[in-house]
Amino acid sequence: MRQERSERAAERPAGPRPGRKRDHTRDGAILDAALEVLTEEGYDRMTMDTVARRAKAGKATMYRRWPSKEHLVLDAVTRMGQREVDLDHLPDTGTVRGDMMALISPETVADGERRLQVMAGLATLLTADPTGLAQAVHTASIEPWISVNRTLIQRGVDRGEVRGHVDIDTLARTIPSMAAYRVAMERKPIDADFLVTLINGIILPALGLPPEGTS
Fold first, then answer.
1. Close Cβ partners of 118 (under 8 Å, ≥ 6 residues apart)
2. Which pLDDT tens digit goes with each residue over 140-181?
3. Which of 122, 121, 143 lies closest to 133 in space, CA to CA?
4. 152, CA 20 to 30 Å: which among 100, 108, 160, 181?
5. Cβ proximity of 72 and 34 under 8 Å
6. Higher per-residue confidence, 80 vs 20
7. Residue 28 to residue 39: CA distance in whole angstroms
8. Given this structure, which CATH class describes domain 25-80?
9. pLDDT class for 99, splitting at 50, 70, 90?
10. DSSP state letter for 19
C-alpha cells in the first residue's frame, strides 16, 4: 500500500518550486551593457558571458530573462529606440516644420552617433540573417520615429495646415528609413544638416508646405 502511494506520487507532475522573484531593476543595466559589448565586439563575437561580466550580473539571471543572444539584442535595440522618443511630450510649435525642427537637438545627434555604432556592430546580422532577427531589429530601431512623424503630420492635417490628401504613413517612414540606410549601409552619422535637408527637401514639399518658414 505504501509502495502504491509512492508510485502515484512519483507519477504526479511536480508543481512549481518556490524561489526568489527576479530583480527587474537590473534589466536596464544589462541591456545597456549589451549595447556596449555589441558596439565593441560586433554581433558575431558578442557573447552572453561577456555581457554578464560587463553588467556584473549572474548568467543564470540573464538566461532566465533572455534565453539567447538574439532575444537580448532585440530587447536592447528596442529599448534604445524607445528611449530616443517620447510620444507623450512631443514639441507643439503650431506648424509641422516647427515641430520637426524642434526635435533636432544635440541629444538627437548623440542618439544618431550611438545608433551608428550599434548598427555597425550589427553589420553582419543586417546583411545576412536567416532567422529574421535583422528585420525585427530594423523595425525596433525605426518604428518609434515613424510613430513620431506620423503624429506630427497628422497634427498638421487636423489643424488644417496640410490641405488635400497626403500619404501620411509613407511620409512618416521617409526620414527614419533614409536615416537607417545612411547609418547601416553608408556608415555615416545622422547629423543636423542631414535631418534639415530631408525635412526641407522632401517632407515639406510633399505636404505642400514651404521650407525655411517662407510663404
1. 35, 38, 39, 77, 80, 141
2. 777 888 999 999 999 999 999 998 899 999 999 999 888 878
3. 122
4. 181
5. yes
6. 80
7. 17
8. mainly alpha
9. very high
10. -
How confident is the model over 38-71, as pLDDT tens digits? 888 888 899 999 999 999 999 888 999 999 898 8
Amino acid at 26: R
Task: Please check whether the domain covering 85-206 is classified as CATH 1.10.357.10.
Answer: yes
Record the cell numbers describing residue 186, joined without a space.
Answer: 553608408
Q: What cell numbers appear for 24 in the block?
A: 527587474
DSSP state of 43: T
Q: Which residues contact 61 (CB under 8 A, 6 or more apart)?
A: 22, 23, 26
**Residue predicted with more confidence, 97 or 132:** 97
Q: HEC states along 90-112? A: CCCCCCHHHHHHHCCCHHHHHHH
C-beta separation of 125 from 137 below 8 A: yes
Q: Is 85 exposed, middle or buried (0-12, 13-18, 19+ CB in 10 A)?
A: buried
Domain ranges of the chain: 25-80, 85-206
